[in-house]
Amino acid sequence: MSAYSSASDPGSIYSSPGPQDYNVGGASTMSNPSALNTTDLSSLLLSLRSHTINTLPALRRTERHLASLPPTTPQLRDLKLALQNAWIYYVDYHHLLNELRGLTKTYPFSETCLEQAKSGVGKTLGNYCYGVLKRVKENGMIAAHARALAAKPVMWGGRKPSGAEVQKLAAACEGEWTRVVGLLLRHWEG
Question: pLDDT 10s digit of each residue in the chain, 190 long?
Fold first, then answer.
């Protein structure tokens, strides 16, 4: 075998095991949580612990699913702890920031704003991500960070911007950031 063999060659050092199938319950088990068996629960636990469930919609879907399980479900305590850790991982390892920035193409969301919000939310909170997003929304952080960003000379090619320019850019950032934070918070509505 050559070190330069193609990735499609099964003996290649570049070959991949391919997509992994994590059975977290099909449509029937998601609509009927009591239909989950021990294998499904173990697979879900593995998926949470290995961070293969790592987007906000997927984590919310899992959270709603676990909330609907009967309290006597085996491994429920482990699943809830794994979900709590998955939320912490999602927020602390920049998945939330990446999602926010992916939705704010014109004015990328402020990392400083998110870091400040994270510092004021306890990680033992039932849902760390929700707490961080609510803090960003309700504590006036968006407006403050939008103004601070708009006033930076780097945003203006190194020159000092006028007050009107700062106000206009701050309003644009604030509008886009507020819209996106509201969009993500809708995952917890109804």
Answer: 444 334 444 444 444 344 334 444 444 445 555 566 788 899 999 999 999 999 999 999 999 999 999 999 889 999 999 999 999 999 999 999 999 999 999 999 999 999 999 998 998 877 999 999 999 999 999 999 999 999 999 999 999 999 999 999 999 999 999 999 999 999 998 6
Radius of gyration of the chain (CA): 21
